[in-house]
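The aim of this short unit is practical: by the end, you should be able to scan a pair of folded records and say something sensible about each. We start with the first protein, listed as its amino acid sequence and then its structure tokens.
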Amino acid sequence: MQLIVRRVKKKGASREVAQEAVSGDLIGIQEAKDCTPEQLKINEFNSGIYCFNTPQLLESITKLQTNNTQNEYYLTDVIKILYNNGHTISGHCIDTVYEILGANTQEELDNLNKQAEKLFSQD
């Protein structure tokens, strides 16, 4: 299982943070609201882009629980479930946040196009 992560300078600022095991593998994703002070020091955030093994995902979804501050089911809990079942979770760290941003309006799309032009003109 793989996901795309991004390192940020301001720790604890993102809506979700990835926890790293000693091995460097990802072991879970935690909503900032549910983080411990130690977890808030992690400077990686979840992009929401995943590549799952379908049978593993479907099995893991049946184990989701609502034991969090929001009392909601979090798809991101699948990462910890997979890790606890012995699967390796790896993250691909991107260079710039613009690689994963989306646009919902024409204005947002125009802004992304401007940022892409700046990035490509630096080459």
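Turning to the second protein, read its sequence before its tokens, just as you did above.
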Amino acid sequence: MEFRGCKYSKERKDYPRISYEVFREVCINWRSNRRSEAEIKATSLDSVKKLTYKSFGTLDQGQWLNDEIVSIYVELLDKEVAKDTQYKVLNSFFAPTTLNKEAKMIDRAIKKKNITKDKSLILPINHDNKHWYFVKIEPNAMVVYDSLVGSKDASWYLKNQIISNIHKFGNRLYEAEMQVSVCSDFPQQFNGVDCGVFMLAGIRDLLRGVQWTFRQGDISFKRVQLAC
């Protein structure tokens, strides 16, 4: 079966097996409910989350992932993948809505989210609703993982207010100056819409401690994997 260039295959060894029935259901939902505000449940989480079919449709081929999809998936990663690692994953709203506030409110948010300096933090970044990438912060280091890095260097990212706030936050949290760098081997996308999938796949690989398991040619299948 094929849906807009996404081929179902039972032979893929590098991804968990997905049944034909599940794949078919995903494709039907993409086709028939693209604009629907009706809600569906994300049942993989301890506390059931709801999202609209409209948001679910952004996982379809050629679509730009929205914040709702990213937030639900990073929460899933934080609960089911990161819990036994050195990492904690925060959602895409933390940096823009919290780190621009006064110190007391930031400290309150740190306590509420159980953020401690013995863990490295991963933060998804929504750049002007046009591009997704993520950063990792840890003692002495802040690394940017971007699937459209081009010629951008660390100084370019630090001009962004959100990144600048994260840098200041990390320096304060870890009580040390973080050196900023850009990951040089992060897989690169060949279009303008797959950045969110690259980001989520990259976060998952980083949490699992494996070398990047995807390239542009894998993204169609990655979309199906995320939807399942």
